[in-house]
Amino acid sequence: MADVLLSLTMPGDVAQLVEDLLLSHPELVRGFTASLAEGHGAVIPLVEPGELVSGHSPRVQIRMVGPEERLRAVLSLIKAKLPQANVFFWLVPVIDMGRL
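Now predict its structure.
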């Protein structure tokens, strides 16, 4: 089965919970990268005064690569364990990967 890239974007207060969940399932996730991001647009609620001034909301984005079946299992796990987590995701095919 071909590898896919799973990207998860979430509020910062959810990120640690998701990271802990991923780390507790090495059979599904070989590793992942987490980075800070900024959420923009009508679907991103701006609540804090700083968000209202800056026009964006802080987010964390987590990315991982692996077999589609395993990463769909990751999505199911997050949905089951953190049903109100407000995690946006997308899956895309990986054409090539490696180390240089």
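Strands lie at 3-11, 33-39, 57-67, 88-93.
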